[in-house]
Specification:
This protein is mainly α. The protein is built from 14 helices and no strands.
Amino acid sequence: MEDFVSKLRQKFLENANAENAAQMKAYMRNQYDFFGIKAPAQLQIRQEFLKAEGLPEISHLPNLIRELWEQPEREFQHFALAHLEKYNKKTDAGFIEILEMIIVTKSWWDTVDFIAANLVGTHFKRFPELIPFYTENWMNSGNFWLQRSALLFQLKYKKQTDLPLLFGFIERLSDSHEFFIRKAIGWTLREYSKTDPDAVIRFVNSHQLQPLSQKEALKVINRKKLTSA
């Protein structure tokens, strides 16, 4: 894995852009270093690199993800997430421990939201027996990134959404003053309103939500009202 990551670092260095790197670091509130490689170029590099090096065996996946996550430049974490998506339907139930690790390590919206809505969401669909234990632990953790993940993992479930679970989590977090929680509450309600707007309206009308959460929750509904008026 070290050789794989070293070769990837060299590839990133060959495509680094100092001006972009400074801008990207500032955008991320100076929390992470960057090579300065934008998303389209990252995709091209990833495709070329994997074509040349090949895909590591799935048995090496946990160690590879840990190695990539330990690297200081953010492009490594983005590479890891894209790589994980390729294996998302092949991992075993215990892989949730790796997903949990990358939620709480180097946490920011650019990684956590993808992990929650895409990786965890798919994993929990494959192993629904994991949902009660892990989501309850996340809700009780005091870590708002884990709590945000408990809210967002059903983001793409549509009619398969477990509404009692989702609404219950929202009720428990509705008085939070953490921006990323208030935003997530609104986001997940807004997304579900595309499936069942009446359910969202009833929930919003019967619960005291933070202004940001309520505004976000009703965005799609209010937009449709304006266009149909």
